[in-house]
From TrEMBL:
Family of this protein: Belongs to the peptidase M24B family.
EC number(s) recorded for this UniProt protein: 3.4.11.-
Organism: Aurantiacibacter flavus
Keyword annotations of the record: Aminopeptidase, Hydrolase, Metal-binding, Protease
SUPFAM superfamilies in UniProt: Creatinase/aminopeptidase (SSF55920), Creatinase/prolidase N-terminal domain (SSF53092)
Limits of the Peptidase M24 C-terminal domain: 542-602
Pfam families named in the record: Creatinase_N, Creatinase_N_2, Peptidase_M24, Peptidase_M24_C
Protein name from the UniProt record: Aminopeptidase P family protein
Classification lineage: Bacteria, Pseudomonadati, Pseudomonadota, Alphaproteobacteria, Sphingomonadales
Domain Creatinase N-terminal residue range list: 9-140
Keyword Repressor part of the UniProt annotation: no
Domain Peptidase M24: 312-530
Origin: domain of life: Bacteria
Root EC class: hydrolase
Length: 602
């Protein structure tokens, strides 16, 4: 690790803060769109600290600093961030705002970038600091950018159209629907800054953010169905502009902030969870009437239409072939002790490319051997790369971006020879039982993801075990692999998505797990589609259930059959019969022979 490098960077930031008359600065992993995955130009926290996780924040004062991460990154942050430079803090137990207030001192001026934080965060920081006679100050420009000499430029890649046959709807129809919503609510316009929402509304895709096919831009949509799309002009090829027509006005992205002033006197909707504080501040300053409302693209984007559902099924079928070929390869090469995490991830990507039309991975492959598997969101690097030891557990969580769908699958396998220890088989089977319980549950319309979460945990809980991540997240259609508003997770403190009812057409992951620190990790993940169900003799109401979309074998050597009920064994056999039906015709030779054996009934 290049600790002197990060120490020098921290010192440079402190000098810049002092020059600006600031006593501190707070910085999240974020961009001006509040994206989960951000472009290289916006990786400010990683540049400053060395931390490579996807979520976290840092607070820097003149004489101390702290980094705040959740339970997913407790171990990773200690491996990547120097303890002499930053205190390690765990959220939600530790509050960044409170830490700053407790350590900054009276009269301190703490800077924050309003283009990287939500309005609720900015207000909470202001209120917490005010109690200690300190103040939060929005900066005109980010001080990291002033000291990051070789900061990359935002991507210049051109956007491209998403085929209307795959999208299932025209952009004009989507814009008309949002315009009708605006009129029904008495709003004049809506400002949309979530990149996947913009891509969905306009039926375009981009290459500006790794693993998520979106373009850096903003969209203001009016109640007459017209829109201003703020994007670098040279990123829009003529065919894209022609397809959108005159109703979508192209304007330079760097004019967006000033253009908010044009909305003076207008009633403007903006999503407080998906738009940064600076947008609200600019609208307020312009004299617009700002209404906090959920991005009107979020829910219709989450409810996949027939064309999107069909596309997902086709993409999953191709992706399953790649995963099956990889798992077969692993059974041959893994026991030889010559495979490591990086080479395994590279091989899996090659198999996906061979299946055709892979545009990107949907996220960095989690290729985790032995103790690295205990890090739920591990990201392999040259520094952490481990060999897949014979006689160990290997976890691989991966996915692909295809024009017709986004995939996400996790398989946990035993690297032979021999069989896994009894403890490993028992805990894998408890995870499997939870996966089956969720997969097979029928539930009434109106049920939320938070209400279903415990189904997947019950067999772990009965043994005093649990996992520290959600059970399921929404998935986009050739868009973000993590998509709201739906999710399956413990409903704590109004956690976003936990209280969203599940609706027919939504796609989610089903991924319970178990992680033994320092030894191994287990996770089983398939994607599922919410759809209607019929219950014989049901007295009332509408009922829903899940259709499994992901098809690839599970490792039978990891299972302890004596812990499975007849119903669970029937699920296993039916699932693998379906895997064989979907995948086997696309394989040949040894890979096909292996698949047929892997799909034999328990």
């Amino acid at each position: 690790m290049l600790m002197p490098l990060h120490e020098n960077r921290l010192a440079a930031l402190r000098r810049e803060l002092a020059n600006r008359g600031l006593d501190g600065f707070v910085l999240p992993i974020s961009d001006e769109y509040l994206s989960e995955y951000v472009g290289a130009y916006a990786q400010r926290l990683e540049w400053l600290t060395g931390f490579g996780g996807s979520a976290g924040s840092v607070a820097v004062l003149a004489n101390k600093a702290a980094i705040f991460v959740d339970g997913r990154y407790t171990i990773q942050v200690r491996d990547q961030v120097e303890a002499k430079l930053y205190e390690y803090k765990s959220v939600p137990a530790d509050s960044l705002a409170k830490w700053v207030a407790d350590n900054a001192g009276p009269g301190a001026k703490i800077g924050y970038d309003g283009w990287l934080h939500t309005r609720s965060f900015a207000r909470a920081l202001e209120a917490t600091l005010a109690k200690k006679d300190a103040s939060a100050v929005p900066v005109e420009s980010n001080p990291i950018d002033a000291v990051w000499d070789d900061q990359p430029e935002p991507s210049p890649a051109p956007v491209f159209l998403q085929d209307e046959e795959l999208a299932g709807r025209s952009s004009a129809s989507k814009r008309a629907e949002i315009a009708e919503w605006l009129k029904s609510e008495g709003h004049d316009a809506v400002v949309i800054s979530a990149l996947d929402s913009i891509a969905w509304v306009l039926n375009v895709r981009g290459r500006d953010v790794e693993h998520t096919p979106v373009a850096l831009s903003y969209l203001t949509l009016f109640d007459d169905g017209t829109a201003d799309w703020f994007i670098a002009p040279d990123k829009v090829p003529p065919e894209v502009g022609a397809a959108l027509g005159n109703a979508v006005r192209l304007r330079p992205r760097d004019q967006f902030a000033d253009a908010l002033g044009e909305l003076a006197g207008k009633k403007v909707a903006t999503d407080p969870q998906r738009s940064v504080a600076a947008i609200f501040d600019a609208l307020d300053s312009a004299g617009a009437e700002v209404v906090a409302a959920q991005d009107p693209a979020v829910l219709p984007k989450a409810i996949k239409n027939d064309a999107e559902q069909a596309g997902h099924r086709a993409a999953q079928a191709r992706d399953g072939v790649a995963v099956a070929r990889f798992l077969h390869w692993l059974t041959v090469e893994g026991p030889r002790g010559t495979v490591d995490e990086l080479s395994a991830a590279a091989k899996l990507r090659t198999f996906r490319q061979d299946c055709g039309d892979l545009r990107d991975l949907s996220f960095d492959t989690i290729s985790a051997s032995g103790p690295n598997g205990a890090l739920a969101h591990y990201r392999v690097s040259e520094e952490t790369n481990r060999r897949l030891e014979p006689g160990s557990v290997y976890l691989v969580d991966s996915g692909g971006q295809y024009p017709d769908g986004t995939t996400d699958i996790t398989r946990t396998v035993w690297i032979g020879p021999g069989v896994p220890p009894q403890e490993v088989r028992e805990r894998f089977t408890r995870v499997l039982k939870g996966h089956i319980a969720l997969d097979t549950q029928t539930f009434p319309a109106g049920t939320t993801g938070g209400q279903l979460d415990s189904l997947a945990r019950q067999f772990l809980w009965s043994a005093g075990l649990d996992y520290a991540h959600g059970t399921g997240h929404g998935v986009g259609a050739f868009l973000a692999v993590h998509e709201g508003p739906q999710r399956i997770s413990k409903a704590k403190g109004g956690q976003a998505g936990s209280e969203q009812e599940l609706l027919a057409g939504m796609i989610l992951s089903n991924e319970p797990g178990y992680y033994k620190a320092g030894e191994y990790g287990i996770r089983i993940e398939n994607l599922v589609l919410v759809g209607p169900r019929t219950i014989a003799d049901a007295d009332e109401g509408e009922w829903l259930g899940f259709e499994t979309l992901t098809f690839a074998p599970l490792d039978r050597t990891m299972v302890e059959p004596s812990l499975l009920s007849e119903r669970e064994i029937a699920w296993w056999n039916a699932y693998h019969a379906r895997v064989q039906e979907v995948i086997a015709p696309q394989l040949e030779g040894e890979a096909r022979d292996w698949l047929l054996e892997a799909c034999q009934p328990l």
